[in-house]
Specification:
This protein is of the alpha/beta class and 320 residues long. Helix content is 31%, strand content 12%. This is CxC2-like cysteine cluster KDZ transposase-associated domain-containing protein.
Length: 320
């Protein structure tokens, strides 16, 4: 992680938390790194959407941790410098939010998120999964934007993950986030933010944050939600489908049977390494366009095989 993020080489990026040691998305708008001079003066009616942050929030109930006797002092080496926030702050944070605001997700949607909160599903588990705020354009994880779920998926935990992502994006001027229950999540978000004593300097961003529904999940919502929270009807959203977080889970679910047996710190370190490796490989292959129908796929397969053979064994050891 330290090599890929440039930390061990003395590389420090502007407009980014100084102590983050994981590799983040380099393709998202980043002042001082990949934006032209005077980008903030762009007319909002014309092309400011080019410099907007596109986020996607979603919960995952496969990256669990079993309830068992383990070492309570086992802490992650990365701490809050990785993709997870400081887990020691989570109990204090939950105590500050009222019971009404901290309740499990309720939604007008008939999608799985409402049916997955049954108590019996989470027996014998300390951590029932994670919730993350990711880059929905390039499919990458954001530092400090992954939070453990000690129970069902709750809005206050999504707020905590969102605060971590916004710390990396606070220098921008526009923010858009998709969430499969975004229509319900948007209600009382500022109340939860203040009650949870989340960073005060991020409140103006939260007020301007546009929360929408992903294109597929939107179809399970009421007709009114499908028009008001539709990505395709939102200015500046383009062809964003908001579903980029799903492939992330499809891949990392394979790690669930291993990480659920680990202690808390070891589990976080393992997932931090996997998420950072995922971001790295995404950037490594992002320049390769998918082949056309007339082009044989053998060339692309050969390139991927060569790249896999060139990696060190430690890069892929978690898959064995």
């Amino acid at each position: 992680m330290l090599k890929r993020s440039g930390w061990c080489h003395g590389v420090r990026y502007p407009n980014s938390p100084e102590d983050v040691i994981v590799f983040r998305c380099l393709c998202c708008p980043w002042p001082g790194v990949n934006l032209p001079h005077g980008w903030e003066l762009t007319d909002p009616r014309l092309s400011r959407y080019l410099y907007a942050a596109y986020l996607g929030a979603d919960g995952n109930h496969s990256l669990q941790k079993k309830a068992k006797k383990d070492d309570p002092t086992d802490r992650s080496f990365a701490g809050k410098r990785g993709f997870f926030g400081d887990i020691r702050e989570l109990p204090k944070y939950k105590e500050t939010v009222s019971k009404e605001q901290g309740k499990i997700v309720e939604t007008c949607s008939g999608f799985k998120v409402t049916r997955s909160q049954k108590v019996g599903k989470f027996r014998f588990l300390d951590i029932t999964g994670v919730v993350a705020v990711t880059c929905t354009r390039h499919g990458c994880f954001w530092p400090r934007a992954v939070v453990d779920l000690p129970g069902g998926e709750q809005f206050l935990l999504v707020d905590l993950a969102l605060s971590g992502a916004l710390e990396c994006l606070k220098s921008l001027l526009e923010w858009l986030m998709t969430y499969d229950v975004g229509c319900s999540y948007l209600k009382n978000i500022l109340v939860r933010w203040k009650e949870g004593k989340l960073p005060h300097h991020l409140e103006p961003i939260v007020k301007r944050l546009r929360v929408l529904l992903p294109q597929l999940h939107m179809l399970a919502h009421k007709d009114s939600c499908q028009t008001e929270f539709a990505v395709c009807y939102t200015s500046g959203a383009g062809h964003t489908n908001g579903e980029a977080v799903e492939p992330l889970w499809a891949t990392h679910n394979q790690a669930g049977p291993s990480t659920r047996e680990m202690n808390g710190g070891a589990r976080h370190d393992a997932l931090n390494d996997m998420f950072s490796f995922w971001n790295w490989v995404k950037h490594e292959t992002m320049g390769e366009l998918p082949p056309s129908r007339d082009q044989p796929r053998s060339d692309l397969v050969q390139v991927n095989i060569s790249r896999a053979n060139s990696r060190t064994s430690c890069d892929c050891s978690w898959t064995s």
